[in-house]
Amino acid sequence: MIRSMTAFARVSGEIPEAELTWELRSVNHRYLETFVRLPEELRGLEPQVRERVNARLGRGKVECVLRCRWSSQLVNAIEVDDERLEALLGACRTVETRSAEARSPGVVELLRWPGVVREPEPDTAPVQALALSLLDQALDQLVATREREGQQIRELLLARLDGVEAQVERARRRLPEIRDRIRQKLEARLAELQADVDRDRLEQELVFLAQKMDVDEELDRLSGHVAETRRVLERDEPVGRRLDFLMQEFNREANTLGSKSADGETTAIAVELKVLIEQMREQVQNVE
After folding, report:
1. CATH topology assigned to domain 7-73+124-147
2. CB proximity list for 233: less than 8 A, separation 6 or greater
3. What predicted TM-score, i.e. pTM, was given to this entire model?
4. pLDDT at residue 90, rounded to an integer
């Protein structure tokens, strides 16, 4: 099954500590390139995120964004460092015993003293576990989308391959007529010149011209490329690079067919082949 490289997935989940949302986007790229954006408290997850993405995807530029909204209880929580406060109060008492002008600090002043108040460190273990679970779900969704779009691309490619086969068959049917036309034109030219004809030499010239304009080999290769492309489309693995190579081979044979064209219809066949091949190439650019 072929896969598209363009897809989007969004998955959310919630536990008492936080609400998490993953957004995954993938677009065309020659290789697999992953960009990860995580909240500062969860930056340690990046290696595991990359490992999971690499295990599921073969090609594409993938952006993985995790948004986290912490529980209000955690955001608004305030902790007092008891040891720091006791040390500060002890220092205040010491100063009061040594100076009659000294006064005890107020509560607000004590809370403003550096280190007395601190924000509690959230327990990120359950949040990390949820983040990885949601990532797996998002990857499932992303892969499913890529497979659905890949199936549509596969159907388009198969239709174009049918078109290529039809043009190849059309060209094959033209070959005998083209060879007869070459013979007739050469004999008509000789008749105009009213020259004695060496039949052996004439046959040699006809063979030479036929070889020069013979496209049997190109048509055979085009048929072979069609068969190989169909086989590749049945593979259960990333096939984008192989298909891209086959499109180059298709195009090479179509160009050669056009350069050897001996009449207008064969030229039209070559043009139609190039149109079909270009349509396939555009689709293949989006295949993983």
Report:
1. Ribosomal Protein S5; domain 2 (3.30.230)
2. 2, 154, 157, 158, 239, 243
3. 0.71
4. 74
